[in-house]
Specification:
This protein is mostly helical. The protein has 14 helices and four strands. It has a domain at 3-64 and 153-297: Fic-like fold (Orthogonal Bundle), CATH 1.10.3290. It has helices at 3-11, 15-27, 50-60, 67-84, 94-100, 106-123, 129-140, 172-184, 191-205, 212-226, 237-243, 245-254, 263-283, 294-297; strands at residues 29-34, 40-43, 160-161, 164-165. A two-stranded antiparallel ribbon has the order 1-2. Strands 3-4 form a two-stranded antiparallel ribbon. Helix 4 (67-84) runs parallel beside helix 11 and helix 11 packs across helix 13. The N and C termini lie close together (10 Å).
Length: 300
């Protein structure tokens, strides 16, 4: 569902657009997490294909990983996550970066920082505000953009990313309480859907002056691993996000709508997990499911 188009057309008097929006209003359900103004985020369970969730579970259960796979994945995850943020380092340069700790270019330093942030998450069991602040310090060490917006813990001042204006600084403490209450709460059963909501909310509140995208992607994989899906330590979700970055930002924008319905981003993350698992199983010469291009399915 493209909210931006539907909401525009509905305002212009398009009856079909109005009808679609009204049907969606009746289908969405509140999530136990509220935005900065106190409105609950919502999602539409009926819009999430059971076949997609089933195929993800089938593929995940057939993944084989080793300790070497995990180490290589951390390096590649760091690389692709930073490429999304504009790093120009090439995949062929990774060996020099990790072997010689090369930091000649900003992109090299960004990748090393992100790698160290993953290692930090692997060593600490705490998941709280202090953990996020430490992550931010590691990720932006020596490569921080917008340092003039850096506060003691969170950013200071207004931040606009694309069409999104992040919540006022005064509301960040409230947002963080919402984030971790949801993170640690016994609420959504499906870890993939919950990880998607957490990812969206972190980007929505945009708590730091820089590094928010990299941290949100680190937290997504980390949450899945901590939910018992340990094989995600050897997968590289940022690779798939990097390859579909336009759809990534479109899904984020589309999830800011009058219903606070984050289903567009949930579907994007589910497709990302699906495509990543399918590619990895293909590398292992295991074809567990017939491939479905879910983005095309949702166009119908």
């Amino acid at each position: 569902m493209n909210y931006k188009i539907l909401e525009r057309d509905a305002k212009l008097g398009d009856y079909q657009a109005q009808k679609q929006l009204e049907q969606r209003r009746e289908q969405v359900e509140p999530l136990p997490i509220r935005d900065a103004l106190g409105y609950p985020l919502t999602y539409c369970p009926s819009a999430i294909p059971a076949a997609l969730l089933s195929d993800i579970n089938k593929m995940y259960s057939n993944i084989s990983i080793t300790a070497i796979d995990t180490e290589v994945s951390i390096e590649k995850e760091s690389f692709h996550s930073c490429r999304i943020e504009g790093a120009t380092t090439t995949i062929d340069e990774l060996f020099d970066i990790f072997k010689a700790k090369r930091t000649e270019k900003k992109g090299d330093k960004m990748i090393l920082n992100t790698y160290r942030a993953v290692k930090y998450l692997n060593l600490t069991s705490r998941r709280d505000v202090d953990t996020l602040v430490q992550l931010w310090k590691i990720v932006t060490d020596g490569v921080c953009d917008n340092p003039n917006l850096s506060g003691e813990r969170f950013r200071k001042g207004v931040v606009v990313v694309g069409t999104h204006e992040a919540p006022d600084v005064e509301l960040l403490d409230y947002c963080m309480k919402q984030f971790f209450s949801f993170y640690h709460g016994d609420n959504l059963d499906n870890p993939y859907i919950k990880a998607a909501v957490l990812h969206f909310y972190f980007v929505y509140m945009h708590p730091f002056c820089d590094g928010n995208g990299r941290i949100s992607r680190l937290l997504t994989s980390d949450f899945l691993i901590r939910s018992g899906l340990e094989n995600f330590s050897a997968l590289t979700l940022s690779k798939t996000i990097n390859e579909t970055s336009h759809a990534y930002y479109e899904a984020l924008e589309n999830s800011e709508n009058s219903f606070h319905d984050v289903t567009p981003f949930i579907l994007y993350i589910l497709k990302t997990v699906y495509d990543n698992l399918y590619e990895e199983l293909g590398r292992q010469d295991k074809y567990i499911v017939s491939y479905t291009d879910w983005s095309k399915e949702w166009e119908h």
